[in-house]
Write a structure and sequence with these properties.
The protein has 308 residues and is α/β, with parallel strands linked by helices. The chain contains 9 helices and 6 strands, in the order αααβαβαβαβααββα.
């Protein structure tokens, strides 16, 4: 569903831009034609710039280390480059190019990948390519309905974990980006499944909500607002010992999780990465190395030129 929605948005924007450019071009307004296509291809950079200004303001009073100007610029540029790759190519057009990898009787620790808000499994394509080469079993889910309740995603995660368990006879590692980490916590609570995972790695997950969720109206976005009733209910269902199973990556330059420390959990191993933006977080080699270590491949090397 998300792939179709993103394709529609891309084609509609291209059609509108091309139509306007065609009309203006026939009138000799070449400057406006160039401006339209500049807005189409670079407009997201301007939006991101405003987000990072907000990051600088909101995180002033946050316990996370204050971001320097160079870190904010590096994070902004990483997101400017990464967002079109993810939202205009990998997710709308390549989400099925890397099927789940479940070799029979592998006896390895497998990985379940859970994406976040307005994303799909295409987010993980670079990870999936590398893990397949290394022989690591994996399942990458699509969370649907796209704008439904986070609780709707727990059966999807349950099926993915079951598939890995069946193939490997081992509890999997779960890797979750953004909202996906909340869905994993909801699944753990619903199924009392602590013994069915070896560990959970969350990447930029709004464990304690995010201020930006106040700007969205979908049900799952409302559930991600700070101190929402849904989040309070989730905390009430969690034993205090569960967070020890989590490694939570967070950043002082995350342009979606505001404030930054909202991506941490008390009792978890909270790992701060300076100067990393939200979507670009899922391309960080240090996070991938953490996953390799958790599945017993800490010494695996990266071929020259291969990157997340």
């Amino acid at each position: 569903m998300m792939a179709r929605l993103q394709k529609i948005v891309i084609f509609v924007l291209l059609a509108i831009a091309s139509g306007c450019a065609g009309i203006l071009g026939t009138q000799g307004n070449l400057g406006w034609v160039l401006a339209i296509f500049a807005l189409l291809f670079c407009g997201h950079a301007v939006v991101l710039a405003f987000e990072f200004m907000l990051v600088a303001v909101v995180n002033r009073s946050d316990p996370a280390p204050a971001a320097r100007a160079g870190e904010l610029f590096r994070a902004w540029w990483g997101e400017v480059v990464t967002d079109p790759q993810v939202f205009c190519w990998q997710q709308p057009f390549r989400s099925r190019t890397q099927p789940d990898h479940l070799p029979p009787a592998s006896n390895r620790v497998g990985v379940v990948f859970v994406h976040g808000f307005v994303c799909n499994r295409g987010l993980w394509n670079p990870w999936l390519i590398r893990l397949r080469r290394l022989g690591v079993p994996f399942v990458a889910v699509n969370l649907e309905p796209v704008f439904g309740s986070i609780d709707d995603y727990t059966p999807i995660i349950e099926q993915a974990v079951h598939d890995i368990e069946t193939a490997t006879r081992n509890p999997p590692l779960i890797v979750a980006h953004s909202m996906g980490g909340l869905a994993v916590r909801a699944w753990l609570a619903d199924h009392h499944a602590d013994a069915r995972v070896c560990h959970v790695v969350t990447i930029g997950t709004p464990h304690r909500g995010t201020l930006l969720a106040k700007l969205a109206l979908s049900l799952n976005a409302r559930q991600m607002r700070p101190n929402s009733e849904w989040q309070r209910a989730l905390v009430r269902r969690e034993p205090t010992s569960r967070h020890a199973r989590f490694t939570c990556f967070y950043s002082n330059c995350d342009n979606i999780i505001l404030p930054a420390s909202s991506a941490t959990l008390e009792g978890a191993e909270n790992r701060h990465l300076a100067g990393v933006a939200h979507v670009h977080f899922a391309r960080q080699e240090v996070v991938f190395r953490e996953v390799l270590q958790r599945v017993g491949l800490a010494t695996a090397t990266r071929p020259p030129g291969e990157a997340l």
